Amino acid sequence: MVKVTYVAADGTRTTVDAAPGSNVMQTALDNDVDGIVGECGGAMMCATCHCYVDDDWTEKTGERHDGEDDMLDCAADEVKETSRLSCQIKLTEDMDGLIVHLPEEQA
Amino acid sequence: MQNVVIIGAGQGGLQAAMSLRQEGFEGAITLIGAEKGLPYQRPPLSKAYLKTGDADALSLRPASFFEKKQITLVDGTHVEAIDRAARRVMAGDRSFDYDHLILATGTRNLRPPIPGAEQALDLRTLDDALRLRNALDRPMRCAVIGGGFIGLEFAAVARALGHEVTLAEAAPRLMARAVSPETSERFLALHRDMGSDIHLGDPVCAVRADGITLKSGTEIQADLVLMAAGVVPNSELAASAGLAVDNGVVVDTRMLTEDPAISALGDCAVFPDPVTGRAVRLESVQAATDHARLIAKRLVKQVDDPYGAVPWFWSDQADCKLQIAGLAAEGDDTILRPDGAVFRFAGDRLSAVETVNDAKTHMQTRKRLAQGPVARAALEAAEFDMAQV
Ligand SMILES: Cc1cc2nc3c(=O)[nH]c(=O)nc-3n(C[C@H](O)[C@H](O)[C@H](O)COP(=O)(O)OP(=O)(O)OC[C@H]3O[C@@H](n4cnc5c(N)ncnc54)[C@H](O)[C@@H]3O)c2cc1C
Ligand code: FES
């Protein structure tokens, strides 16, 4: 298990246990973390799973995937350098402690 | 309003329950579903699931979610009748009282009246997908009846897994109800390149133990036959309760039936298209979830806004991700942009844009259509750059 912390737009922090192999979007839904919608179920079709990876973690989570940029272009909230589609961040053992920040709006 | 009962625990039914809580509804929510187990997503059934067999990945929310949100999930339970006068629904020896009822019963597979049809397999539920997956455990000759999204997605997966595929479509082109002739052509080429044998304009007239027979007399040998010839809305419940039904449960711009205590959403609902007013029924995750959100807002916040979401849809076939933004009618005009994006027009108005592996244009279109109609002349002036209109 790895720990993932979601920081809501209002600063509320929620830390949950996640299984490596799952992704940051699914983990949020499974644990009832508000602020991620994930309408398309991770098919990279909806951009309602937008998150900002904490500065300390961007190296571990890696580059955006092919096509992620285009979807993010149309995310409801501001897109920053650390913006990712959380459904495309697959959790690995070395992401234990990962922190992601959530935008105010998803749709 | 104390009790909301939702019939159908699929994509839209669950979304309605979730949105009610999100909007702050504190009364009881009862979500009744005929299928066993937790609500799940269907799109992967004809895509990733057939390859991976990972059923856990399909659940929309874990069991703990229902407890936490105090949503009573009554699974494996088929509602048989609605008593509108008493505001109660009946299922076997159980009954559930409601102040508001939401019909989210979806569709079921169409079984055309052709001899032997009962031998064919379906692809609608997780059980169906499991059966198909099990059948594909050794090299098979597959015959697919119907060249719509589901038949084609299955064909692409089956080919990728090394099975033989023959597909028969009654219409002269693929996905004819939903896409332009140009997009049909493109996908026909894709499937033929993958080695699938595609028969167009040749309806299936019999299913045999060893394959299918087409109207032209062509006999196709197959070990497995998939029926993917469309769906029928589950609207009998509404009809027998005296509600208007016409290719689905008829609702107004607020997704409300003629009974102010009953709403309907998703695959089973026929609603006025916000742009044209035409009565439409959409089979998409987008429609089911956006309908659900609108209904929840109306019930909790008394917001009476008409439904106005821009339709969008996707289909994965091999390495081609087809995306559709907007809603075109079958005869709409088509203009093909040099890079392959297809623009469709109802008269002077842009009705839909079809793209393949071009999320940018797709998302730009969705965003733009949400702001209002786009005129053909404006698009032409902007050389079909969605960002410039
Ligand atoms: C194989 C497949 C692939 C798909 N791919 C895509 C895709 O790529 N993109 C996309 O946007 N959409 C796709 N769809 C369509 C999408 O899944 C549906 O539009 C969506 O599920 C509709 O949601 P719904 O709630 O209206 O109906 P459903 O999700 O079908 O749920 C309806 C539920 O109601 C239950 N029910 C019916 N009658 C009763 C009753 N009397 N009592 C109790 N329960 C009842 C049914 O058992 C069912 O579980 C696909 C569908 C299938 C089958
Ligand atoms: S869940 Fe839809 S893009 Fe991530």
Describe the structure.
The complex is a heterodimer of chains A (107) and B (389). With 107 residues, chain A is an alpha+beta fold. Chain A has one domain: Ubiquitin-like (UB roll), CATH 3.10.20.30. Helices cover 15% and strands 21% of the residues of chain A. Chain A starts with a strand and ends in a 6-residue tail after the last strand. Chain B folds into three domains: 177 residues, FAD/NAD(P)-binding domain, CATH 3.50.50; 117 residues, FAD/NAD(P)-binding domain, CATH 3.50.50; 70 residues, Enolase-like, domain 1 (2-Layer Sandwich), CATH 3.30.390. Chain B has a five-stranded parallel sheet. Chain B is globular and about 55 Å long. The chains are: A alpha+beta (107), B alpha/beta (389). At the A-B interface, α1 of A face α3, α8 and α9 of B. FE2/S2 (inorganic) cluster binds next to loops of chain A.
Summarize the structure.
Chain A has 107 residues and is of the alpha+beta class. Chain A is built from three helices and five strands. Chain A has a five-stranded mixed β-sheet with strand order 2-1-5-3-4.
Characteristic terms for this protein:
heterodimer, A: 107 residues, alpha+beta, Ubiquitin-like (UB roll), 5-stranded mixed sheet, 3 helices, 21% strand, globular, B: 389 residues, alpha/beta, FAD/NAD(P)-binding domain, Enolase-like, domain 1, 5-stranded parallel sheet, 5-stranded antiparallel sheet, 25 strands, binds flavin-adenine dinucleotide, binds FE2/S2 (inorganic) cluster
- Classify the fold: give the CATH topology of the largest domain in chain B: FAD/NAD(P)-binding domain
Rg from Cα of chain B = 22 Å
**Strand portion of chain A:** 15-25%
Largest sheet of chain A: 5 strands, mixed
Which structural class should the secondary elements of chain A be placed in? alpha+beta
* Structural class designation of chain B: alpha/beta
Strand order of the largest sheet of chain A: 2-1-5-3-4
Instruction: Calculate the mean pLDDT score of chain B and round it.
Output: 96
Give the name of the CATH architecture of chain A. Roll
How many domains make up the 3D coordinates of chain A? Answer: 1
Q: What is the CATH architecture annotation of the largest domain in chain B?
A: 3-Layer(bba) Sandwich
Question: What percentage of residues of chain A falls in helices of 4 or more residues?
Answer: 10-25%
CATH class of chain A equals: Alpha Beta
* CATH level 3 topology of chain A: Ubiquitin-like (UB roll)
- Residue fraction in strands of chain B: 25-35%
Q: How would you sum up the global shape of chain B?
A: globular
Q: How would you state the average pLDDT of chain A, rounded?
A: 93
- What kind of assembly state do the chains in view correspond to? heterodimer
Strand adjacency order, main sheet of chain B: 3-2-1-7-18
State the distance separating the first and last CA atoms of chain B.
45 Å
Uncertain runs of chain A: none
